[in-house]
Design brief:
Elements lengths: L2 H29 L2 E13 L3 E12 L2 H21 L3 E7 L3 E2 L5 H17 L10 E12 L5 H17 L13 H18 L10 E7 L2 H25 L4 E13 L10 H14 L9 E4 L5 E13 L1
Antiparallel strand pairs: 1-9, 2-5, 2-6, 3-5, 4-5, 6-8, 7-9
Helix pairs in contact: 3-5
Length: 313
């Protein structure tokens, strides 16, 4: 017998063995399909109870000492402003001061680009802004009342307009920069936005968030409803593969707070505020996992998903 015949005979035996193994495996799967995965979701509609704002108070100066003094003045002034706006002063928090992050590698590169462009044009080098800026994060709330959607929307819109006009951050206080420096500063901000690929928040911009609360009873019921839907889906899948739904092997739940009204680049700051709020919830000292944040004064959505793995008998 030649080597070629021996080779073809071996290949034939191997093919028959693989076919028999596949057939046996298929029969085993039909007798015991194993397990199925299923997902159940529930949606809970809520009404926001408060308007929460987040803004950085600003203190500017040609040196750190002057910037710190201006920031202290801004803290005192903002409390008076918030009292006039009838904010809930018990909810007011002002964090410790920090530098605004100027002078980093990105800003240095932008400064170098501006100077190089001026030299290429043969003109005088622009007067680049040199100023120390301190910021202190402020958070405060206003209660939202009433059941009429139109009235709540009008009241919330008017309140947001008053808050914006008040310049709580003090961005317009004691202009340290000359008009020429201010123009260069604005150009640097535009270049920074293009450089990072994201819109840059302007100094003193207010982040408006509407906050709804989920009670423990509501959260528990949402989980129970989502699990019931997952079990129902699992039962259908088990029957589809010729088996019956068995015991639960694994279950995982996730909460997906609604973000209606937060899509698109025009709401980038709202999205960033949302992520910041979610990050703060992970800190034990300020955890608020019962909150849903939205950009709608009338509606918020709380979604619960349960993913299960069931045995199939």
């Amino acid at each position: 017998m030649t080597h070629r015949n021996i080779l073809w005979q071996a290949i034939g035996i191997l093919a028959v063995s693989i076919s028999l193994l596949a057939a046996n495996t298929a029969r085993a799967d039909q007798k015991n399909p194993g397990e199925v995965s299923a997902v159940g979701t529930t949606t809970l509609a809520l009404r926001p109870k408060v308007l929460r704002i987040q803004v950085d108070l600003l203190g500017k100066g040609k040196d750190l000492k002057t910037a710190m003094a201006n920031l202290r003045d801004r803290r005192d002034a903002v409390k008076i402003q918030l009292g006039t706006l009838k904010a809930d002063m018990k909810s007011l928090t002002i964090g410790p001061p920090a530098t605004a992050g100027a002078g980093g590698p990105q800003e240095q590169q932008i400064r170098a680009m501006i100077m190089q462009r001026a030299r290429q044009k043969g003109g005088a080098a622009p007067e680049l802004p040199t100023v120390v800026t301190l910021r202190a994060p402020l958070t405060v709330e206003w209660a939202l009342t009433g059941d009429d959607d139109d009235a709540r929307l009008i009241a919330a819109t008017e309140l947001c307009g008053k808050i914006t006009a008040a310049d709580l951050a003090g961005a317009k206080d004691k202009q340290v920069l000359s008009p020429e420096q201010q123009e260069v500063q604005e150009e640097m901000a535009q270049m920074s936005s293009r450089y990072s690929g994201e819109p840059q928040q302007g100094p003193g911009d207010v982040q408006f968030l509407y906050v709804a609360e989920v009670s423990d009873a509501q959260a528990s019921q949402a989980l129970a409803d989502a699990f019931a839907k997952a079990k129902q889906q699992g039962d259908r899948l088990a029957k589809a593969v010729g088996g019956e739904l068995g015991s639960l092997r694994k279950a995982e739940a996730s909460v997906m707070p609604g973000m209606e009204g937060m899509g698109g680049n025009e709401n980038y700051y709202a999205m960033r505020a949302y992520r910041m709020a979610m990050a703060r919830q992970s800190e034990p000292a300020s955890a608020k996992d019962n909150e849903v944040i939205t950009q709608d004064p009338n509606h918020a959505v709380y979604r619960t998903a349960v993913q299960c793995v069931f045995e199939v008998k």
